Amino acid sequence: MSDTDRGQTLYDFLLGTTLFLLTVVLVLSLFDPLFAPFTSPSGAEDDAMADRFADRVVAENATPFGDRTLDIDGESFDEETLETYRARAGLPAFRSVNVTLESGTGEVVESGGPTRPDEPVATASRIVTLPPGEGCQDGCVLRVEVW
Question: Model's pTM, two decimal places?
Answer without folding.
Answer: 0.64
